[in-house]
Design brief:
Elements lengths: L10 H17 L3 H8 L6 H16 L1 H10 L10 H14 L5 H8 L7 H18 L12 H11 L1 H12 L4 E5 L16 E4 L16 E3 L6 H4 L8 E5 L5 H8 L3 E6 L2 H14 L4 E4 L11 E7 L14 H4 L2 H18 L3 E11 L8 H10 L3 E3 L19 E2 L15 E7 L2
Bound molecules: S-adenosylmethionine (SAM).
């Protein structure tokens, strides 16, 4: 048997990182989807975490890494060529993760076979010489990939794109949502009731109050949709697309009688863990909303629709490499079908909140404008400043849109669109 590579320490981790990048860049999978298969051979959780971290940093810094690689090759390597992938992995380690050069290159070379190894070695050495002489330098901020950059520049302008680049450079703060306004002994920045912003990368499960279920992790922007529904006072709420349960927990702790529906049994396991830990109550249904229907109309319906998820690019750097115009159009079509199906489940006088963690108007503003044209029994119930966290204002027509520029000085928030509608008749 010829398996000499097995002896190289750390190689299996880099092979896993390569498989992760292949899954994202070639097959359009997310890192989370790709993790089980790509890292299955790694038994140590810290090796799995390192493979994920290498791949995530390659995805975040790809524009800058590729510019360095291209500066050192006469013929441009194809985007998905293995030598380019091996070089991205080696350079991300040296330049971002502070891995020693010899460790980075000795684990990158075995990722390619035959002649291209010389090429990888040559390009790596040239780039390192450029770095040492000061000719090449990693920019201060990573740059979002070209297709997204063009789309967001067109839709939102350059300030938003610059803010997105800045937001991408740093780990996101840890936002906690609490059951009550009692945040115990924890210290952080309070940007809204029942909320606390803490520094990034804290081990959340070790924080006081976690085991007791006093709080859960939830980006501030993600908490807005449920805030707009106010106190439940025992009224009935359908939380549609509910797993892993962040919004159900907010609604249950605000006194709503919640029925939570999601089609993913796996995500509903996390939902059960969350509700178990926080000891909050909700009726749980695992079903496809296109098949299921409620026994009775509800006082309020929250649809946290499946979307492109481009608004959560800070935490999921794969998203901007997988999502393009076709995927956005597909997601928008799915949202339209879901909205049309669930709209009749709202009582007359009741509320429908629609939310997406997307920075694409097709899934947000345009989706809701088109919905209102199809369903004239609904109207926007305008959101007021008083209902929103500090530094976030409603849009001109009373909806909510968070962008990379939102709360930039406080560490940014995820990109969301939220509309609150009332059923008039
Ligand atoms: C944005 S996530 C929901 C996050 C959740 N609301 C929270 O706050 O924790 C979207 C969810 O939609 C679910 N989903 C997608 N299509 C669905 C369908 N046709 N029926 C029911 N759930 C669906 C997915 O399984 C996923 O859990």
């Amino acid at each position: 048997m010829n398996q000499p590579n097995k002896a190289i320490p750390g190689l299996a981790t880099r092979q896993s990182a390569l498989r992760l990048l292949d899954a994202v860049c070639r097959r359009g999978e997310t890192l989370d989807q790709a993790m089980p298969a790509a890292t299955g051979k790694l038994s140590n959780p810290s090796d799995k975490a390192l493979a994920h971290n290498i791949a995530a940093n390659v995805l975040r810094w790809m524009t800058a890494l590729d510019a360095m690689i291209d500066s050192a090759t006469r013929n441009r390597l194809a985007d998905d060529a293995k030598p380019r992938m091996a070089l991205r992995i080696a350079l991300a380690q040296v330049l971002i993760l502070d891995t020693p050069q010899h460790a980075a290159i000795s684990t990158a070379l075995p990722l390619v076979h035959g002649g291209p190894r010389r090429l990888v070695h040559g390009v790596f050495s040239t780039v390192m010489r450029g770095i040492e002489s000061g000719e090449l330098k990693l920019p201060e901020y990573p740059e979002i990939p070209g297709e997204t950059l063009d789309r967001w520049t067109h839709n939102w302008g350059e300030d938003v794109v610059n803010a997105a680049n800045h937001a991408w450079a740093k780990p996101a703060p840890l936002d906690l949502s609490f059951q009550t306004d009692d945040i115990g002994a924890l210290e952080g920045e309070k940007l809204a009731p029942k909320q606390l912003r803490m520094p990034p990368n804290l081990p959340v499960t070790g924080l006081p109050g976690f085991d007791e279920g006093q709080f859960w992790v939830q980006d501030l922007a993600a908490s807005i949709a449920a805030r707009l529904l106010g106190e439940g006072k025992g009224r009935t709420m359908l939380d549609l697309c509910a797993a892993p349960g962040g919004k159900t927990m907010q609604l249950a702790s605000a006194g709503w009688n919640v029925i939570s529906v999601d089609s993913s049994a796996k995500r509903m396991e996390r939902f059960q863990d969350n509700l178990g830990r926080t000891k909050l109550q909700a009726e749980e249904v695992i079903a496809d909303l296109m098949q299921w229907q409620p026994a009775e109309l509800a006082d309020a319906v929250l649809l946290d629709a499946p979307c492109s998820a481009t608004g959560i690019f800070r935490r999921h750097p794969d998203v901007l490499h997988c999502i393009g115009a076709r995927q956005i159009a597909d997601r928008a079509e799915g949202q339209l079908a879901l909205l049309d199906r669930i709209a009749p489940w709202v009582k007359v006088g009741g509320t429908l909140v629609y939310a997406v963690c997307s920075l694409e108007p097709e899934e947000g503003e345009e989706q809701i404008n088109a919905f209102l044209e199809r369903h004239d029994q609904f109207a926007i119930d305008p959101v007021t400043v008083a209902e929103l966290p500090e530094h976030i204002s409603p849009t001109e027509n009373g909806c909510v849109r968070t962008l990379p520029t939102t709360l930039a000085e406080q560490g940014h928030v995820d990109g969301f669109f939220i509309a609150r509608l009332v059923r008039k008749d």
